[in-house]
Amino acid sequence: MKHLRTPRMDRCIGCQCCVLACARLVHKLHSWTTAGIHIRSSGGLTTGFEADVCVACEPAPCAQTCPTAALTQRKGGGVIVRHELCLRCGECAGVCPVKAIQMEQDSGLPYLCVHCGQCAPFCPYGCIEFTDDADRDAPDDAIPVPSVRIRKESGHAPN
Amino acid sequence: MPPIDIARPFSRILHYDATSGKARVEEFGLRAEHLGGSGLAAALYEASGLAAASPDAEEQPIIFAVGPLTGLFPLMSKCVCGFRSPYNGQWTESHAGGRLALALRFAGYDALVVTGRASELSCLIVGGHRVRAVPVPFLRGADVFRTGKYMRGMVKGFSGHRSTIRIGRAGENGVGFACINVDSFRHFGRLGSGAVLGGKNIKGIQVVGDSVSALPPGKSYPSLVRDIQLAVTTTSAMRKYHDLGTPENLEPLNKLHALPWRNLQKTSDSGISDMTGQRIAEDLLLRQSACAGCPVGCIHIALLREQFGDEHDYLYKQVPYDYEPLFSLGTMLHITDPERVLSLMDETEKTGLDCMSAGVALAWAAEAFEKGLVSEKETLVPLRFGEWEGFETALRHLAGRDNDFYRLLGQGALAAAACYGGDDFACVLGQEMAGYATGEVFFVAQTLGFRHSHLDNGGYSFDQTVTEKDAGAAVKYLLKDEHDRVMLTCMVACLFARKVYTTEKLQECLSSLGLEDMAGVLPEAAGAVRDLRWKLKMGTGFDPQKARIPKRFTEITTWKGGIDATYMEETRGLYSREILRMGGR
Ligand code: SF4
Ligand code: SF4
Ligand code: SF4
Ligand code: SF4
Predict the structure, then answer these.
(1) How far apart are CA B384 and CA B376, in angstroms?
(2) Interface with chain A: mutation pick from B109, B161, B221, highest number of A CBs within 10 Å
(3) Residue percentage of chain B with pLDDT more than 70
(4) Best mutation site among B235, B291, B495, B515 for testing chain A: the one with the most A CBs within 10 Å?
(5) In the predicted model, is pLDDT for residue A42 greater than 90?
(6) What's the count of helices (H) and strands (E) in chain B, helices before strands?
(7) What's the rounded Cα separation, in Å, for the pair B125 and B442?
(8) Burial class (CB in 10 A: 0-12, 13-18, 19+), B210
(9) Which residue in A133, B104, B213, B358 has the most C-beta neighbors within 10 A?
């Protein structure tokens, strides 16, 4: 199986295309709060952006703490989410070590990455990658750089 | 609260009255008629019935409007701010990116309208689930950066999901070209929106994007997003906005003799070699950034390292740069050391002045100083072309409205010239000029344009691409281009994407969301918006037939030779008659 990694966040321009793609394609919603990935400015001495996203724990503390089967362990790390079983207790969000679970206010449901990879092609700079679980312990710089999409010259210039 | 309907027939407005401190959410009008952005702001203003009231009356609104496509497609990332301009009293708009457009969309509103005046200096926090004013008397006089930092701490837990807009000293003091800073790197720049907010005793607004909208079922919407994303991220046109960005234009415009230098005493100078887009990128570019919802990333941020002590005492600043401030605070003041121009930009940013208007107004002041029309008695510091220190202090005097001279200059170079003389060389085309000395059509287009902006229409491009002097053809071009742009500013698109979003593409986008009714009438509705904007502008004091182009603009030489005053006058006459017609006069 594969999972989502964020090996090159130092290139991130904060466009939020990944966030919007997840909300749109995975959850069929338009919002900042119903997505598995969140982008925020890093602040402090470093500049640029950071991503809050599930790091695919195995075992996953969020699934272990969940009182129902709304979150269950996914093979290769991370969890499988079943919103229809969720009690909206928020326990999972509290135990996630990287604060990757967002409790959406209107529905009270947790939103987190399910490692489907649909957001990755929308990143113009290859900051996020959908990689093989086999590579999960590989350092970030060992993750191959894809075409940096925005620099690729192809098609007809609109201007 | 169930998810908000993306295809609702009416606009959803959050109205906050700062006097009473009360808010209400309203359903307004028909989106198929007013569209959004420019059209929504204009329709809301018309409905307010305040065109006859004084522009600085407390009840006058400041309106932040987004459109039906905001956040739903790439580069639909802009927000329109509609207000009565403290610079000229007229109904106008300013546009900005950052995260504001998406924050408003995700807060669930098509527009935020603020009226009234708070009893003490306050920050406003709004979202789908919150409206709250926080008194901030301790932020009086605070610069834009400190204010932003404080405001980000006001709401916990929404990092990256909110937008923070605020004013500096210039806005609090009511300078005619005070801006509103949006998320540190973008601005509602021109014509004084910052002073409008200041007049409401509002130091800043934080918009929290905390709500959810439902998307239409089916594949047509997501597959259209995918196609457009691919189109905008793989073409050379967009690459140029990301790569060197707009400063790429400095060198070619200088070569064309179309780059204003020294208050437009010249249109070309060898000093450009110190300040090309290439050189700034190589020496000073720290990183690029993007507005939320835009994969291009045209925002260029420079790293400015400054020594503040005698020993090895340094501080560093992140300064966003673009073509326009490099022109207004650089070539126009004849300063070509990019680091010093960045210092001026940083000062402008802190005080909350608009960089284009401030630079061009100071360029007039430098020439008036050179000619002896004003002396240090008025300017308080020597203002000489090429000497940046004087201008840095002058920016603070402008923001502080420190004496009569700076109070007048803060209303524009022509206001100061009315008192001290020198209107011949005031580089004012409706407002302080944009950085294109391309010729007759641009000068007319900015003078008469709805926002007096180089973005109202492509006048500068007509000058560069059409050689024959045909006033009829020029005006025909301006009219069509304005209409096309109004369509985009109703959606609300970044104008960099104008080649991608043709009328047909916009109609396809609207239909994919279930807004077929709007798609069907889009061109006509945009025409009605354009006419309404003119009607409002004229109803609030604009007379296109009285607009004049100062003498300096007739004295310059471009690559085409001298300015043809007859052609310019003919174009001006024709275009002003068309504007009267559009505005129903
Ligand atoms: S959501 Fe958090 S706790 Fe659960 S698997 Fe992902 S990173 Fe681990
Ligand atoms: S909020 Fe839902 S998913 Fe999270 S722990 Fe509670 S029941 Fe499980
Ligand atoms: S991998 Fe899938 S679930 Fe995770 S953030 Fe990307 S689109 Fe969302
Ligand atoms: S799509 Fe890429 S560049 Fe854009 S915010 Fe996400 S990680 Fe950053």
Answers:
(1) 11
(2) B161
(3) 100
(4) B235
(5) no
(6) 23, 21
(7) 40
(8) buried
(9) B358
What is the fold, at CATH topology level, of the domain defined by B11-208?
Aldehyde Ferredoxin Oxidoreductase;  A, domain 1 (3.60.9)
Helix or strand holding residue B26 (H, E): strand B22-28
Q: Is the bond preceding A121 in cis, omega lying within 30 degrees of 0?
A: no
- Pairwise CA distance, residues B579 & B557, whole Å: 29
Best substitution site from A26, A29, A39 to test ligand 3's pocket, by max atoms within 8 Å of Cβ?
Answer: A26
How far, in Å, are A4, A39, A69, B102, B232 from residue A18 at the CA level? Answer: 11, 9, 28, 14, 15
Per domain, the residue ranges of chain A are: 2-56+98-138
Judged by a CB distance cut-off of 8 A, whether residue B129 touches chain A is: yes
Nearest to B213 among A25, A30, A152 (CB): A30
The alpha-carbon gap from A45 to the nearest alpha carbon of chain B, in Å, equals 10
Q: Where are the domains of chain B?
A: 11-208, 235-420, 432-582
A17 CA: distance to closest CA in chain B (Å): 6
> A2-56+98-138, which class in CATH?
alpha beta
CB B201 within 8 Å of CB B118: yes
Is the bond preceding B492 in cis, omega lying within 30 degrees of 0? yes
Ligand 4: residue of A6, A8, A9, A15 to mutate (most ligand atoms within 8 A of CB) is A15
Beta bridge pairs of residue B255: none
Q: Atom of ligand 1 at shortest distance to CA of A78?
A: 5
Q: How high does pLDDT run on average in chain B?
A: 96
A148 in contact with chain B, both atoms CB, cutoff 8 A: no
Label each residue of B548-583 as H, E or C: CCCHHHHCCEECCEECCHHHHHHHHHHHHHHHHHHC
Question: Looking at CA atoms only, how far is residue B417 from chain A in angstroms?
Answer: 41
Tokens of B288: 């690029």
Cβ-based contacts of B214 with chain A (< 8 Å): 28-30
Rg, Å, chain B Cα set: 23
The residue of chain A with its CA nearest to that of B211 is A31
CB A15 within 8 A of CB A124: yes
Distances (CA, A) of B505 to B69, B174, B351, B428, B494: 12, 41, 41, 37, 15
Q: Is B72 on the interface with A (CB under 8 A)?
A: yes
**What are the pLDDT digits (tens) for A91-109?**
999 999 999 999 999 999 9
| Residue B493 with chain A: CB contacts under 8 Å | none
With a cut of 0.90, is the ipTM above it?
A: yes
Residue B107: its H or E element: helix B100-107
Contact A14 B288 (CB under 8 A): no
CATH of domain B235-420: 1.10.569.10
Q: How far is CA B290 from the centre of its chain?
A: 17
Identify the pLDDT of residue B264: 98
A72 Cβ below 6 A of ligand 3: no
3-state helix/strand/coil string of B37-98: HHHHHHHHHHHHCCCCCCCCCCCCCEEEECCCCCCCCCCCCCEEEEEECCCCCCEEEEEECC
Q: Which tens digit of pLDDT belongs to each residue from B49-81?
A: 999 999 999 999 999 999 999 999 999 999 999
pLDDT tens track for B123-174? 999 999 999 999 999 999 999 999 999 999 998 888 889 999 999 999 999 9
Which pLDDT value is given to residue B363? Answer: 98
Nearest CA in chain B to A25: B222
> Residues 33-72, chain A: which have Cβ within 8 Å of B?
33-34, 38-41, 47-48
